[in-house]
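Need the bound structure for 3-methyl-2-oxobutanoic acid, inputs here:
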Amino acid sequence: MDESGVESKTTVIVFDTTLRDGEQSPGAAMNIDEKLEIARALEEMGVDVIEAGFPISSPGDFQAVQRISKEIRNCIICGLTRANEKDIDVAAEALKDAARPRIHTGLGVSDNHIQYKLRTTRERALEMGVEAVKYARRFVDDVEYYAEDAGRADPEYLYRVVEAVIDAGATVVNIPDTTGYSTPAEFGALIRGIRENVPNIDKAIISVHCHNDLGMATANTLSAVLNGARQVEVTINGIGERAGNTSLEEVVMALKTRRDVFGVDTRINTRRIYPVSRLVSQLTGIPVQPNKAIVGANAFAHSSGIHQDGVLKERTTYEIINPRDVGAPDSAIILSARSGRHGLRHRLEELGYTLDDEQFEKVYQRFLEVADRKKTVDTRDLEAIVSDEARLFFEEAYHLEQVQVTCGNMSIPTATVRIKGPDGQVYCDADHGTGPVDAVYRAINRVIGEPNELIEFSVQAVTEGIDAVGRVTIRIQADEPVNGGARRVFSGHGADTDIIVASANAYMHALNRLIAARREARQG
Ligand code: KIV
Ligand code: ZN
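Answer from helper R.:
Posting the output first, comments after.
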């Protein structure tokens, strides 16, 4: 869109749904401050539309949409609803302070959804969509309509729905491949079909929202762009329901790198891609797979001798993207304890971390500890330290002050923990377990006593070598007091050269997030 809100034929609007569909990934739940931090990073990166949440789904979502609407002034702020008045009322209320609010409403268009989920008829579903758009237009000028499960719908019916909702006032029509079922050729043809068969299509922007169940989300999105879609719905690192959504970094870099094929631009400052990817991974606790395109740790690593030789002679022999264009750090830069505060701050800024003085001091102290044990600290260590310390930026109800274990083949693994509680009191307790980590978790449970089930535990070495920093990621599942006691997953992570300490920190992180969510729900 240009300043008057008119679609430009060669600009693709980037609609980021990390805070809504992305947050639906199991374990990705974030608190309001974390969501705001991501929203600020998205704004700075140049995202056009931020889908900030689904306001009626929980008090936390409502407040997040409200805060983001107040504070983010350079993006359209969007709230999701179902096609009913109550959802729309709540979304309109949450969005009321936004500079440019958008309501995103809709319902299913496939016979599968109409029959089994909505239990209605095509005609009634069409009417409900039209009524929802008209109702949403009473509150905002910008209404996006999602035709859920469009990828499996009868195209003729979809054309009728799209035409009717545009007549009712929809400014954007979202064609989701909700189940990730389409192939690129099919999905491109569907978008072309909409352009050719919907008489009023020029009055709205075509958006696409693809899921990655068959690993084709990016390909489907790009095929849609080639066929006239001018808004792409994406998430950072591709997080989202089930196998995730189309990833922002893949689409933006494909459009940029192959402009000769696509002939369109986005407004994304691509140098912010890597830092924002790390921020989202850090705050959601969802690691980025090493071979992930654009933002994976190996995306620019050349390991075979032939490739290394080629890249040293001429970078473009094996690199189609300059790592600097996506803000990927040069991992060869190494710091030591002698680098001092100035050297560390400079490097952190290069990596995209902006920390206040108090946060910086915590990171600096941890950096000195690691540098003392490892002698040198590279980019990967530094990222692990910052992401581990990020736990502490987040207001903890319980703080682990000390953990100590005894274990070995001749002893029963036993752990003692010292934890400071929300009342400022320090609690000490001990327990034994099947192994040292189990013993630590049991001892922590004796103090905190928040019922939960550990569903995932993984340890990863951040760097090579026996002195490597280990990163532990865990997920716990617990009942949520809102949503009728539904089970919700909380992730936590910790990093340390001592993996027992990293494990204890990861568990404390997840428990503190669970406690914060319960507190938010009670306050809501
Ligand atoms: O996948 C989907 O269809 C969605 C809609 C709610 C836009 O997320
Ligand atoms: Zn979705």
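Comments: The first helix runs from residue 32 to 45. Residues 21, 146, 148, 174, 176, 178, 209, 211 surround 3-methyl-2-oxobutanoic acid (ligand 1) (CB under 6 Å).
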